[in-house]
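Narrative progress, year one. The postdoctoral researcher (J.K.) led the effort to move from monomer predictions toward full complexes, under supervision of the PI. The following entry was the first complex the group processed end to end, covering 687 residues in total.
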Amino acid sequence: MTKEHYRHVYVVIEHIDGELLPVSFEMLGEARRLFDDFNRRYDLNEKVVAVILGHNIKNLSETLIEHGADAVVVADHQDLKDLINTIHTKVISQISLSKEIAEKIEPNYSQEFKKPRYMFFAADSIGRHLSSTVLADLDSGLASDVNKLVISDLDISHFVKTGGKRIMYKKTLEMYRVDFSGFLWTTILCLDNRNEKLSIREYSPQSCNVIPGAFKPLKPDSKRSGVVIDFQPKVSDDDLKIKVLSQKFVEDKVDFDSYNTVVSFGRGIHEAPEKNIKLIEEFAKQLGAQIGISLPISKSVFSASPTISSTYMIPARVIGTSGKEISPMLYVAIGISGAMQHVSGMEESGFIIAINPDENAPIKNVCDIFLKGRLEEVIPLLMEELKIQQQVVQA
Amino acid sequence: MTLLNIAVVVKLEPDFSEGSISYNPDGTLNRSQTKSTLGPHSKIAAQAAFYAKVKYGAKISIGTMSGHIANSALQMAMETCDAEVLHLYNDKIFAGADTIGTAEVLKKGIEKMDGKMDIVFSGHRATDGETGQTGPQIAWKLGFTFLGNVISYDINLEKRTVTAKRLLSLRGISDLIQEIEAPLPVFIAIDPSYKYYFSTASLRLTAEKYQREAHERANNYKDRLQTFDSEELGADKTLVGLVGSPTIVYDVQRVPQGKVIRHAEILDGSNPEHIRKTVTAMREALNAMVIK
């Protein structure tokens, strides 16, 4: 059995009113890198296809080609002006299943074309849900929050997928995602059922949503060429009853950009969460610092008073791939072990100090000073010394 | 008054609260030592359903796919929203499902509930799986309009529409609030920041009445608990469990430690000289005068 009914990688582009979001370029960059290698290895000519929906957006095609797309499918229509999941899902499905579009992308493969081979979406408030509904409609699998992608031939034995036999799955997309603890990396595969005793089914596209910031965009290259394909969407009257009444930007709840110093805390506060957070609050105040947290803190890991939990244990304070990426002049990581997803949000800081009793914590590899000790003991000493040095400066 | 028909789908999850959670020495979750509870996002979904019950009048049913261990989660959800019906979808062939295999079971379950649903609520995402995919996939299978990241909503009973505010967090730009109107039925995945507020004394009294009722009901939750296996749900066995799941977990490995990108000076937090050195370095990093 081959998968040659399935061709190309379709990348679902995100923009707000014509302003392309950085994750769109990141996905295109990664798709380009993967497919240059893929086409070379398998001696194929499959394409990176950008799919963009909206109104008055045709002018964006050139930019998408410069960032790595071989083809851009543009559904430019008044009915697609607003971000409405139902409508966008149906149009993306129409595009994904269209042989006519496949022919314009690459005539050689279009006769057998059924669906895309792979699809990429963004793991944000738009793409996370859109990818779920599109894949429910296309009846295939989806991995979420992916931060590494590899295409390879895998020799698989699985009691359901293969009935325990070893079968080679060619051109399989290995989708890596970090679990909630930040310490485990899980590889998700979307595999056809090839177990005759149960059910035979093909699952394509192999799809994922990718974490914004996980991949690097390409430098735009104006010499790159590509085809632009117009698509006329079909939107039902029923679906047009769903209406966006208003859309407005809101200020971030927690401002990190205006602060030179950020003090963050993690699970190390566990011995006395309420008391320790208050201590950190004092320390941050003395430093004129904003307060950040590691991801687990935002998940009701510790009980604290309503004021403390609603002020600090909130997603808006999370530093890392699931939250903010910051680069203050000074970053102090208190009781944070240094999971990869946290590090990627703070590693660009000017100077990094970690306070941690465990010398083997991975945070050690990304800091300038590793101050070994319990935060309950170390912070009061730092505060006292700060006071002394400040007095000296004032004198 | 015509009652709204509301379903809530919930999930039993590891209890991340202090004293209940246990980590292995390497920082990963020790599942065998960690207790389970109603997922915090599921609880918010139940609170959102309770708001509709108090404000508009509603019959609430709750469903979950799990083993009998999830009875406690159903009981807690019942107490949160004064549900009348509890559904447990329990069959060993459901095990190992990915999100689409799970969504199929929950769709079948919701269709088994009494009457056609006007609104289905789910949490934002599970704290252990964290994909956030199951809600939208159930919505799609039911043919309901999906509204995610909902921070507040209201119903127009006459027009049979819902108006919801959605919070969109997108990297690279400020957060967006979108106000959207959709005809019922809808599927709402509720945002973690959702909070309800009853503006009048009469609504607050109604809420108190239902809370008392909920407490009573939750004490005797088994009277209202129905369990369904795959046959009883009429589930297609090729669409549920591992067989109905396109994806598999192929490998789990420790995240490799990042490259050593800075060579830390290791100092002793109990040594006054080292504390002095740290503070000096902090001040230098901020050009000394920045610290007020």
